[in-house]
Amino acid sequence: MYGDLGTKLVQHAKRTQSLAYLPPYQREIVQAVTREVRDLDRDVARILEQLEQARIAAEGEEEGAPQSSFNPADDPVTACALLVNHLSMRRNKRCLLTYHRIRAEKIEEMCWNGIDPLEHQLRQREIENENNNEDHGMPRGDKQPLSNSHYNSSLTPVEEEYFRQYNEMLMAYKGHWTDIDLTGRLEPPKELYIDVRVLKDAGEIQTEYGVTFND
Prior knowledge:
Layout: H1 4-17, H2 27-61, H3 76-112, H4 117-135, H5 157-174, E1 204-206, E2 212-214
Antiparallel strand pairs: 1-2
Helix pairs in contact: 1-2, 1-3, 2-3, 3-5
Keywords: Coiled coil, DNA replication, Nucleus
Pfam families: Sld5 (PF05916)
Subcellular location: Nucleus
């Protein structure tokens, strides 16, 4: 059914948001959704071509008659087919954009947190491999090495290039403010009293409540 593969992509995207690492790229599903969009587009083009041929034939029989456009009320079956195909294509495209946007946001989040997706993925798989060996009763020292498939990157070549360029841009951006940690936590402190590190002497500071501080 139209849209089922797009729904799977959205489910993978939702799962990606709750993970600490970036899961493997769903290449087969993405390609299948893309093929479905192209098939729907060909169906729409075929229907429109048939309508155009019918219009030309009608104009040939009725010369001098005013040129008329397609009226959905005259052929509700064709109008419904065009609408369903168009909405299915639009939904699949939105699912593709959502999936890739969430993966891009995950890569950006890792850059801000100073995490290398490749090293983080390898470390996670090593931990999973150790847990699997322990479940099968193997001693920790006799753990089975990872196969070559475990070393495959979960990022596509395009995503790896995006990570590299975004990381370079972030490093250049942080280079302007070397005294400030821009990658620190964004959550405000919950303590009632906190220590504030002053980077520059600002003299006397007065708050909105009239309290004066001397830097």
